[in-house]
Design goal:
Elements: E1 7-12, E2 27-33, E3 39-44, H1 49-65, E4 70-74, H2 84-87, H3 95-106, H4 117-128, H5 165-170, H6 185-203, E5 207-209, E6 229-233, H7 249-266, H8 270-273, H9 282-292
Helix pairs in contact: 3-6
Length: 301
Amino acid sequence: MSRLFSAYVIVDWSAAAKPSTGADSVWIGVLKRDVRFRLVFEAFNPPTRAEAEKKLTALLDDFKKRSERALVGFDFPLGFPRGFAQALSLPGEQPWRAAWDQLDKMVKDKADNTNNRFGVGSEINRRMTGGPFPFWGCPPKDALTTLQPKRTREHGPDDLPELRYADQAAKGASSIWKLYYNGSVGGQAILGIPAVRRMKLARGDTFKAWPFELGFKPLTEADLAGVDVVATEVYPSLYKAQAAPGEVKDLAQVRVTAEHFARLDEAGKLSAVFGAPKGLTPEALAAAESEEGWILGVEQA
């Protein structure tokens, strides 16, 4: 079986409120073929999300010119727990797209990384529950009636789930409702999804978000006809990254994750990874495809 992709791009996003490089900042790892068709790795560490988006756009434009298809993995959720769109009364028949559109309307992320992610979480809380739930986590100075530094209560049977099905399967994945402190993927998602949405809008049907637009099935070349980019969620912590001398952990993780998917593709095994995770109920599969998303490479226990 031929390779599905020519390049593998792994993005370690950041919710930093000011420009930064090094550890805990944006890292873009790119594994692509040189003129001799050998895989070579390069990494970029732009100090702001705006510069990262510009760099990703340039990379994808270059792949398109070369007629090379890219797998792009983002290390934050591309969807919210089931029921999110309904709880906010968002319009449209595709909950994932409705959530993307809503975040795009609400998020303000400036060129210097200052952003309103806490305000977005607070406003969504207000609309959903009128209190500081389900989003939580912020510096004390940013606390509001509808957003508190610490979690105020557990999720009950009548609340939206704390974790997506993919988070449960990944074991150790953080909740998207957490906006601050270590492992705050909620902040990354709020600021990252609008950027992915812009990239998709610029490329139309040549850019597919998995599993929302491709479904759960082993992908073939025919499935990807006319597709330049497949965007997925990845979880770099799944792959044991041993940092080389001079590498920060974030750089090592994007490199090792890119190498992992490239090896699978080279062996003809990557196609199957896009199939339905074993053991998921039809209800869970439907939720993942329509709203929650899934982490590429995670199997249901």
